[in-house]
């Protein structure tokens, strides 16, 4: 999506306020990069048919750096060359009052990411809001219940704010600074005020109602029907029906929630950056692989230890994932693992960076908002625009939990037995900082696979080449470097052009692959820069082409070596690219439901999780797994071991995701902010049924759970599991056709492109899935892919 990127972004029917507010956090087709492994010993029967919408409202979702995240990215300034490549510059903004040089107010094809600075934010956003307010007043004065007099001018207003604010917010995610934070914090209330004004516009709401009630409603195309329906529902969710004190209170809550979410994510980033452990004695980090030592030395050098080297140190360990994760997997020093683990699960939980009171206030305000809108809890608000209901989501999670539990118990017993056989003193009392370490040793022993030893086979350039070749085979597109065409925010960022079979550009995307702990959020995500739209086409072009960005946080090149990836990082790139494909390959010209826009949140992970499956397909894997020095292919026996290891500890990994999803629903359905049970009490209670080893009493992972407190996944984290049913079944269509047949793959890929990737939010996810698969989704492929059989025991 943490992935999300992944995110995550980025996403629903691009409705007024919610579209904009969701955008602000880091929406994210996001898409995030979590891998979950649903398992079941008995058939899962749950309906994916659309539910009937209840009376009032609906809302949005995203991701965290504890597992992965979903934010957004940026590009550069327009040039004549750029105009030749892209048909849709952003509408002109003729500046005045000394603002003519502000890059946020310029007409551009690709955003001027290289030119925007903190000093541009206050004057640029304020002038933008002033102009958009004028446009809104004019729209309300002249509005009629027709597409040209309602939807098209509305889309121009929504899109301009979305794109420009997206530039600012993206820079905050990838190029954070105190000055940028301060500027955003100052103008954010003004932006939210405009969003509320737009979302609560009675003339716009009444015009959509008039279209809905007119005789011409039935003659509208499906996409337009979806827009009308979603705008009406979203307007109610945005408080259009509230009056006087209720509306004033609602608006106060929205302002405060935005401020709190922003502060939450800043605290997580600052707490992650704050932890630094300098190690002088190499014995303390015995077991760390060469790549981790090189990164630790590089980090130490960047902090003033100029002579640091991988061989002689000193080494600096941080909580940034590329540093943290190898310690948990490989460090033989148990006390080091414990120290780093405890620091990680208590991030942003003390002192000036404590997110505990922020969480309490967020949950209290969300509940208050829900009640103002006529709902009993915030989960009902969140679910109003999703495929699932609360009951269906809880039913799915419980079926997966009970199916996963016995496998997870067996996982733990296997781990203890192995550790005991290796003479580990802690074998009978394994703790959280032991699990990953001994799991990796068991995996190496059982499958003879060492993930670090595989890195030389997965260099980033070769992985990207293989990924683009796969996209060509599946979807008949070509992807070419276009560096220099668009401005970028960092020299490591790559820019690409996507072309159809006739060599015509159809989309563009940015790729920011490497970790930069000092300025960049953790995790992985995808988001939109601009969406496809006929309304916003320029210079006689039929449509504006979509532009996306993908962000990862993998290990950067070290010395003269390219970025050498773990297999999990390979899966992450495939995941985020799946999100980007849905945005870029859309054939939907209605901008409010093009690409990832307008898609129900619990279906948004389908393309991303679908793409992960190809990492295990033999031809695809062999095309990317080439030794970066010798060009030697990954040995066949290693490939077979990777396949065999695919479901290693699947029960435990599934429970981890189920814990996150269950605590999310508990906090947004049953939690009473004024009751005796704290958020940590609830986490402990939920964990009794979702974790074989209960969390430490000091566990404060909720304080870094960006997905639900600073993103769009509030009461929506279950979506990862829900979408796995869809994605596994979609991939099974290729299995049924024959993965050993290029012709069958191309034919099925064409059908996938023309349905799942083409329709955007213009049709319901269930309709889209049936159009591709010929039937409704089945959980059977998911269970088969995870390879889990019933185990006799009780949950």
Explain what this protein looks like in three dimensions.
The two termini are 31 Å apart. This protein has a 5-stranded mixed β-sheet with strand order 3-4-5-7-6, sandwiched between helices. Residues 1-89, 91-97 and 791-795 have low confidence and may be disordered. The protein is 50% helix and 5% strand. The protein contains 28 helices and 7 strands. The protein is globular, with a radius of gyration of 25 Å. Strand 4 (494-499) and strand 5 (505-514) form a beta hairpin. By secondary structure, the chain is mostly helical. Helix 18 (567-584) packs across helix 19.
Distance between the termini: 31 Å
Shape: globular
Structural class: mainly alpha
Strand order of the largest sheet: 3-4-5-7-6
Number of strands: 7
Measured by DSSP, the beta-strand proportion falls in 5-15%
| Largest sheet: number of strands, sense, barrel closure | 5 strands, mixed
Low-confidence residue ranges: 1-89, 91-97, 791-795
Q: How helix-rich are the residues, as a percent range?
A: 40-55%
Counting DSSP H or I runs of 4 or more residues, the number of helices is: 28
Mean pLDDT: 87
Calculate Rg over CA atoms: 25 Å
